[in-house]
Amino acid sequence: MRKEEWELTSRALLEGTRSLFELIGEPLEFVGRVEMPASWSRVAIVGFAGEAFGGMLAVSIDATAIARTAPSPDHDDWHCELANLILGRFKREMLMLGVEIHLSTPMLVVGEGVSLDTSAVSAVVHRFKTSHDESLYIVLDAVAEKSVHLCPIETAPPMSGEIVLF
Known about the structure:
The chain contains three helices and seven strands, in the order H-E-E-E-H-H-E-E-E-E. It is an alpha+beta fold. Strands 1, 2, 3, 4, 5, 6 and 7 form a seven-stranded antiparallel sheet that branches. A hairpin with a 3-residue loop joins strand 2 and strand 3 (53-61).
């Protein structure tokens, strides 16, 4: 993929993340791209793959934000679900650019000094802040074959949350 296409990929992730947090009533401010934090205490990770595009998405969010936004007392499950929902919205945005991906099951890694060793040169860390000044980090580590070219499709896929039967 060309550099401009990686920028479209990053914007797809940003748009999907913003729309999800607006839906759950927690608007986000995009702080910018930052260096990979040296360590994490909790990070939800979910992989994705397509014919010529694949990678992983990692989400780390302050525990207070998890507790405040969780629809149930199971905060670990909610952390994983946030990663799943963010990647699902990213999937829809990428589909609108002509790239289909499939998602794996998210997992939560908990510990002291957990570090992510990303394999792709294109790994990017996006930092957001909640209205309560809490941090949300999203790492996108992806690889694409040179044959992948993003181009908007003519027919938009179903909206997030719509049920599709086939």
